[in-house]
Amino acid sequence: MKARKLQLYTKILIGLVLGAIVGVLANKFGFSVQVTSYIKPFGIAFIRLISLIVVPLVFASLLLGTASLNDIRKLGRVGGKTMVYYLATTAIAITIGLVLANLLGPGKGLDAETKERLMVNYQAEAASKIEQATKQPGVAEVLLDIIPTNPAKSFADGEMLQIIFFALFFGVTITLIPKEKTKTLLSFFEGLNEAMIKMVGIIMEFAPFGVFALIAAIIGEFGAAILLTLAKYSAVVLIGLAVHALVTYPLLLKIFSKVTIFDFFKAIRPAQLIAFSSSSSSATLPVTMECAEEGLGVSKDISSFVLPLGATINMDGTALYQGVAAVFIAQVFGMDLSIGQQLMIVLTATLASIGAAGVPGVGMITLALVLQTAGIPLEGIALILGVDRFLDMCRTAVNVTGDVSCTVVVASTEGSLNYIPGAAQQIAEDAAGKS
Ligand code: ASP
Questions:
Q1: DSSP assignments along 308-339, one per residue
Q2: pTM given for the model
Q3: Under CATH, which number does the domain 2-434 receive?
């Protein structure tokens, strides 16, 4: 069994490396158009397949989780802990980004010619991002929006916060009705839930090919050269992400749970790889849930509450990157950011990460809001657009890591963590073998 488990992860990794090689070759020898036309669709098919599970899986598992909690107080406690953890780690992440960018000064060395070239090349794209950002609703509107007036519309549009709200409300209501009246309803959702979990397992068999296609297409289209132009900026973002993933989370796990860093990272590797290849924490959600439950022993009621929320509202990697990006752009434009401005960045980036959906490139749009509140020129977005796709992949992997760390901490403090050190590293692939 162990061999099968290792195999899935190894196969995904092989897909990633081969995809990178094909992408580099395609870019170098000019066949990236063919890669985009013939290989990329397999990657898109994979993303679509895992995305199709998200809505039914989240709804069914959250409803069952809430209905089985049978206790409103527990729900309030779990919700409170989750929000505190998500907000605190997001604020820590931006602070790491700001401190590193101030210390290392990535924007100070950028020569005028490169700046000019980037500004000209990405001007139009930057303008469209800024336009999208200015269309974002205000805080009150975002909060009111969480209450769906028509749940069917929320299902159809995949609006996660609204679906979560409806599932929680529905689940709590079920606990207030005599059991014999809800038996059939609950067993229907149990069946749906099981079928969705089985589906994740089946789709994951296709993951190595999907990852191969996605990586080949991305590298083929963009090439690795742009990374060199913005090497210092990219390096600061990557160092920050590494610090957050390898210091902040392990520290919190150590304080609040017995899960070892080794087991933690081993169990979540499939989710991290899918997040990296897809740049979407929402699409990764079914795999993330599988890793937390099967690999780390988080109970279903906790993971089905904490993880869907996290995929939507918790984006530590994104927030950290926004901190670095804001300081970088300010430095290139020769601005010195005051402490007040930097605190505004912490606040806006934390709030922006709640409202934004876990889909590719969204961090770049909310960055415009962050820049605006700190008084940094919005057109500076053009400077960093070229490397955004790659950094998006990395920050999404951190976003997902943060979601799982919160789930482990909440489960551990609730006594809902059935963790066996060094064992039970079952990963999503197992679902395929389960009946
Ligand atoms: N792609 C990220 C996610 O889905 C969001 C972002 O940073 O753009 O988590």
A1: HHHHHH--HHHHHHHHHHHHHHHHHTT----H
A2: 0.85
A3: 1.10.3860.10
